[in-house]
Amino acid sequence: MTETLSRTGPTPMYVQLTNILRDKIEAGEWSVNEKIPSENALNQMYGISRMTARQVLAQLVNEGLLFRVQGKGTFVAPRKIATRSPSYKGIREQLEQMGYQTATELLSEEVIVADRHLSARLALPEDEPVHKIRRLRTVDGEPISLHESYIPQRLAPGLFEHDAASQQLCVILEREFDLEMGHIIETLESASPTNEDAKLLGVHRSTPLLVLRQEISSPTGQRFEYSKITFRGDKVRLTFEYDQ
C-alpha cells in the first residue's frame, strides 16, 4: 500500500515523503543493501516531481540511511551502531548490553617519553615516561574502532601486568590505581583513514572516520589519561546527552 501525500496541509510534500521512506527503512520493509524505488518510480507512486524525489533521496543519503551506487541506483545502508560517548560508559560495555558480540585485540603496549604534544595533553613535563596502549575492537567479527591510550607511568606502575584486552582500561585504572574519572574534555572531528587505519579497520581510504579525543582527569584534577578513539563513520553514530 502506498501512502497518500497531503497537498493541502502545512507540511511540505518532500518532508512528508522523507518521513514515509524513513519509516519504511527503520521498520525493515526494505532490507539492508536492497535497491529502493528510483526517482521516476517515486514520481509515479506519489505524484511528485523528480526534483522533489531527488531532494528526498539526497536527505536520506545525508542521514546515512541510504547510499548511492553510480549507474545502479539507491540502496538501503547498513544500520549504524548508536553508542554514547565513552565518558558515560565504556564502549565495550554499551555494545555488550545491546547484544553485540565484542572482541578486543591488543595491538601493542610500550613505554614512550612524552613529546610536546603529550606533555600538553597530560599536563606533565616533556620526556616523562608514558604508557602507550593500542587496541582494536570488533563487533560481531567486524572491526569498528581503534583505541590509543596514554597514561603517565608514575601514576600506573605495572599497568602492563593487567590484561587490557579482556578488561576495560577505565576499570583497570580505577580498580588497581585509584584513577577515577572526574572531569573529561572531549573533542570530536571527522578524518580520512591513513593506510594503517584502512588496513586495521578493513575500510577504503574514502571511508569517513570519527576521531574522539579525550583528556581525562580525576576528581582532584589530576590528569591521568589521554586517549584517541577512531571509529568507522560508516558503522558508528555517537550520541551526546546533556542536562541543562
Write up what this structure looks like.
The longest helix is centred in the N-terminal third of the chain and has 14 residues, at 13-26. Helix 1 (13-26) crosses helix 3 (50-62) and helix 2 packs across helix 3. The protein folds into two domains: 13-76, Winged helix-like DNA-binding domain superfamily/Winged helix DNA-binding domain (Arc Repressor Mutant, subunit A, Orthogonal Bundle), CATH 1.10.10; 81-239, 3-Layer(aba) Sandwich (Chorismate lyase), CATH 3.40.1410. By secondary structure, the chain is α+β, with helices and mostly antiparallel strands. The protein is elongated and about 70 Å long. The protein has helices at residues 13-26, 39-46, 50-62, 91-97, 116-122, 169-177, 195-201; strands at residues 66-69, 73-76, 81-84, 102-113, 129-139, 142-152, 183-191, 209-217, 223-232, 236-239. Strand 5 (129-139) and strand 6 form a beta hairpin. Strands 4-5-6-9-8-7 form a six-stranded antiparallel β-sheet. It has a two-stranded antiparallel ribbon with strand order 1-2. The chain has a two-stranded parallel ribbon with strand order 3-10. It contains seven helices and ten strands.
Mind describing the biggest β-sheet?
Answer: 6 strands, antiparallel
CATH homology-level superfamily of the largest domain = Chorismate lyase-like
User: Strands of the biggest beta sheet: in what spatial order?
Assistant: 4-5-6-9-8-7
Number-wise, the strands total 10
Structural class: alpha+beta
Number of helical elements: 7
Unreliable spans are none
The fold-level CATH name of the largest domain is Chorismate lyase
At the first level of CATH, what is the class of the largest domain?
Alpha Beta
Secondary-structure element pattern, one letter each: HHHEEEHEHEEHEHEEE
Tell me the overall shape: elongated
Distance between the termini: 44 Å
Return the average pLDDT rounded to an integer: 88
